[in-house]
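=== RUN LOG ===
request id: a7f3
mode: sequence -> structure
chains: 1
length: 223
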Amino acid sequence: MKYISVAIDGPAGAGKSSVSKAAAKSMGFTYIDTGAMYRAVAVFAINEGIDIRSDSEKLVKRLDEINIDIKYENGEQHIYLCETDISERIRKEDASVGASDVAIIPEVRTKLVELQRKMAKSANVIMDGRDICSYVLPEAQVKIFLTASLQSRAVRRYKELCDKGIECDYEQIKSDMEYRDKNDSQRAVAPLKKADDALLLDTTELSFEQVVEKIKELIQNAL
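=== RESULT ===
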């Protein structure tokens, strides 16, 4: 049986995870948050006191110790790192920035991409990240590049964190996003960019519900 793969790329804070999750639930697809996997690796490094930027080789040497699992409990996706649920931990800002830093390490990408491709072969999936269309799932039946203005993305992330009771600073979030945009687009391996055959969807002026419906429409039209 050949399963359907939907690949969604875009910069940090474009709303990929939330809208992809909602669209997948509505259409009966499995949602795979690849960004959460990179965040998990970042959390491992943070927990172990590894400075990713100055000593990435130390992390590479310990990759075999990193066991990441995605489970669905009560309809919600949970991320486990070495059997510990870190679903809430990975949403903190240090994990967000760390995810961008570990994503430029070739050995980390090789390990996680292999796992992501394996997942896509086992179910109908909506997978989001930075390089899903162009690198992870280049043969996906549906490809979407989701974007929004930097200010809009920063405001959304700020509100999201505030709603969860997480202390944060808007200017710091905006600065971190600018750093991640540059880091992700300039990395040597599979940089963030719109695939030639991906559909562009700018969400700056759209509500959450409008984006979800638009994604569902694009998927249905493409299939």
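=== NOTES ===
The chain has nine helices and eight strands.
The first strand starts at residue 5 and ends at 9.
=== END ===
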